[in-house]
Amino acid sequence: MGSRRRGTRLSGLLCGAGLAAAVLGGTAPVHGQPAPSVLPRDVLPLPDQPFQGRIGDTTDASVADWPSRLEAPAGAPNILLVLTDDVGFAASSAFGGPIPTPNLDRLAANGLRYNRFHTTALCSPTRAALLTGRNAHRVGTGNLTDLPMGFPGYNGVFPQSAATIARILQLNGYSTAMFGKHHNVPASQQSAAGPFTQWPTSLGFDYFYGFIGGDVHQWQPKLYRGTVAVDESERAGELLDQRLAEDAIRWVHNQKAAAPDRPFLLYLAPGSLHAPHHAPADWINRFKGKFDAGWDVLREQTYRRQRADGIIPRGAALTPRPPQIPAWSSLGAEDRAYSARMMEVAAAALSFQDAQFGKLIGELERMGELDNTLVIFVEGDNGASGEATQVGTSNELGELLNGVKDSPRWLHGIMDLMGGPKTYQNYSMGWAWALDTPFQWTKQFASYLGGTRNGLVISWPGRIEGAGSVRSQFSHVIDIAPTILEAAGLPAPSRVHGVEQMSMDGKSLVPTFSQDTDTLRTQYFEISGAVGIYHDGWFAGRASGRMPWESQPPEGAPPQWELYDLRKDFSQSRDIARRNPSKLAEMQTLFRKEAQANNVYPIDTNFSFRRAAMAAKPAAARPPRTHFTYWSVDTSVAQAAAPNLGGKAFSIEAMLDIPSGASGVIVATGSRFGGWSFYLDDGRPTAVQAFTNSEGNETRIAAAERIPAGRRNVIFRFQPRDGGGAMAGGRLTILDGDKVIAQGDIAKTINGVAGIGESFDIGRDTGSPVTDYPFPAHSAPGWIERVDVLLGK
Question: DSSP E strands: which ranges in 228-338?
């Protein structure tokens, strides 16, 4: 009996291989595999290997043979990849800009700055090209992923033949994690129902902590860990950039604790400087008065610094201000004051983000990991954002979607709110233009360097010659994946999970770590009809004629093609098309050839939400869903899968079993920047529509008396005027069963909710709230039994 007990206990101790090794005084077996260098890496994952051992009747008569497993090559570095958002070439001090980024400056001093590095001029395409090493149209991302069209270049889905750099590294033995913005999931796939094939954890990242979509409220973000929504109370009150950096540090600690010899890929994609511009008040105050001289002076100052620091050639011209951007001197005193404040907030946001990046770099240094880490920092996924018109906005999506225009009185009066949770602001186009010095135009302009040229910093201790130098060969975001593979000593695989892989379009930048290389290259550009083609130092392009805040170009003939010799004209300042018609024709022919080869056609000059209406998926031809049922108070649905209450008749019928004087949210969708909320306030059914965040744009309709306790059927019914539509307005009625208990008019109705990432919630109001509730809005009440939403009734 005694020996049996001892044997049982020993077998329990030996149930794990690692624990067994500890008990026996040895180490866990390393799977008996050959040295990683002899294993083939062309086909991933490593195919199943036939058993090469011998199996006898007992283990003494048998020879073990462990399945082979790929490990990262010996000495392969950690990879820290950073991509910021809407940061123009001339924003950060690392590239001569006015915003201090001391941590990026230090990285550049120990590495290299690239002054001819290019992105696609828009968010989703740049991110697709970065992750895959292929041109964006080849991987279905010729425009915003959440507004797809039914053509190969625009369907919003990465093909299986384009494995991401994360997947390749993961299958080669790297640990992989992503933190921040992932704007590569079609809107129809952003709900809890999936599919999750475009989410980071399905693209090769072991771990994801961040947000899905174009932007998110930085103070009250809707975040996911993997594919599961993060509890709103987690790190409440902290800005997003701080949350991302600290979660990344936590992940590195745990990764190195478990596998200290395994290298990692850490992809950090903060949301700054995309709208909304949010920053702590004390950081904003550091910049008080710094931009009072305006964008014209700022651009001149930046240009002089760039030349003095060697960031741009001494002979590079400063391109003039376009007529669509007003001179700073033409603004009135109050307009200058609020506009300068908007720039102060933007500067604080980028500077704060740099500080969070510094925390991560500092921790890698403390851990002794920085010396074996290749850091690739792309400062901006496109040029600075000019979407907020010549005025700026306190409600980014409200203006784009609902036509909201901030009144001068409102803008002049909210300077103390700027950067806080009650604004969703973006600065005016004048600041965006200044932060793209010395180039023409801004984000979305794929035909101009202001849209496509961004700063790149690369650091790799001990592996870079001439630290602190500027590299000037043409490079592109598609080059990042091949650079990582060469640095890690890995080939681009020919097959991944049984699918033959398309070739990568990029070229490794590793040769530039020791010297400048030539600029002999061909690269096309296209965003919403704005096109460009680079070839061996020449550039030809044609703008779409559309301003960044417009959904389509004006009627009439499109702008003429332009031609630039970038070998002699760094800033694209001299159009020489008329003097070189044959060269222009040659470049136009080359663009068409590249466009055909990369799925660029058909070209659509429309932008934003009109694209979805122009080329809806065939599934959208089915009868639209008009009845939605929700059974749980912990339900949050992405807007693409939720009922759209904008400008149409609807009924919300809630089966409740309430105590006396109950308070809580029943349904909420959107936010104070555009949304609806239906709730009980001390037993009184209440409806609120927030048309926008500005004063006087919230409509509240409430019952005068409490409804009785017990089981109740509370109905909120809206009937629009004149057939409905955007801003049509209408009448909202609240019923307790068949009894009308409140009615009221809503002057104008939203077309859709704002901001990006806000969900349709049952029993609570997540993200940025629709209104200031007199009770906690994030804790779901237990008295909601069922909610039905009926559209058109």
Answer: 228-229, 264-269
Per-residue tokens: 530: 């704005």
Distance CA 32, CA 30 (A): 5
> How far is residue 7's CA from residue 618's CA, in Å, rounded to a whole number?
65
Among 557, 558, 575, CA closest to 566: 575
pLDDT of the residue at 467: 95
Decide: 169 and 154 in contact? Cβ < 8 Å. no
Tokens of 182: 């992932």
- Tens digits of residue pLDDT in 636-695: 998 888 999 988 899 999 999 999 999 999 999 999 999 999 999 999 999 999 999 988
Percent of the chain with pLDDT strictly greater than 90: 80
Exposure pattern of 162-192 as b/e (b: 16+ CB <10 Å)?
bbbbbbbbbbbbbbbbbbbbbbbbbbbbbbe
How far is 450 from 452, CA to CA, in rounded Å?
6
Amino acid making up residue 25 = G
Q: What is the mean pLDDT of residues 617-629?
A: 70
The alpha carbon dihedral of 362, 363, 364, 365 has a sign of positive
Give residues with Cβ within 8 angstroms of 55, minimum separation 6. Answer: 62
Task: Summarize pLDDT for 68-92 with one digit per residue, the tens.
Answer: 889 999 999 999 999 999 999 999 9
Cα 734 to chain center, whole Å?
Answer: 39
Q: In this model, does residue 761 exceed pLDDT 90?
A: yes
Predicted pLDDT at 24: 30
CA distance 31 to 217: 47
**Residue 83's closest CA among 5, 179, 159, 170?**
179
Domains and CATH numbers, the chain: 80-392+427-590 (3.40.720.10), 623-791 (2.60.120.200)
Amino acid at 203: L
Q: What mean pLDDT value characterizes the chain?
A: 91
**Structure tokens of 700?**
């509240």
**What pLDDT score was predicted for residue 401?**
74
Q: Is the pLDDT of residue 27 over 70?
A: no
Strand partners, 687: 678, 701
Q: What is the DSSP string of 607-660?
A: -TTHHHHHS--GGGGSPPP-EEEE--TT-EEEGGGS---TTS-EEEEEEEEE-T
Q: Which of 440-449, 511-520, 676-685, 732-741 has the lowest mean pLDDT?
A: 511-520
**Do 538 and 495 contact (CB within 8 A), yes or no?**
no
Alpha-carbon span 752 to 106, nearest angstrom: 44
Give the C-alpha separation, 268 to 84, whole Å: 8
Could you tell me if residue 133 is left (phi over 0), alpha (psi between -120 and 50 degrees) or otherwise beta? left
Residue 639 has phi, psi (to 5 degrees) of -60, -35
Length of the chain in terms of residues written: 793
Nearest to 271 by CA among 193, 196, 211, 359: 211
Q: How many CB atoms lie within 10 A of CB 231?
A: 12
β-strands 538-542, 562-565: how paired?
antiparallel
From 10-19, 264-273, 478-487, the region with the lowest mean pLDDT: 10-19
Residue 51 three-state SS: coil
Q: Tell me, what amino acid is at 754?
A: A
Amino acid letter, 577: A
CB 432, CB 87: distance < 8 Å: no
* Number of helical (H) and strand (E) elements in the chain, helices listed first: 16, 30
Residue 519 phi, psi (nearest 5): -110, 25
19 band by pLDDT with thresholds 50, 70 and 90: very low
pLDDT digits (tens, 9 = 90+) for 533-549: 999 999 999 999 999 99
Buried b / exposed e along 399-424 (16+ C-beta atoms within 10 A):
bbbbebebeeebbbebbeebbbbbbb
Cβ contact 453:464 at 8 Å = no
Identify the residue whose tokens are 């030349």.
307
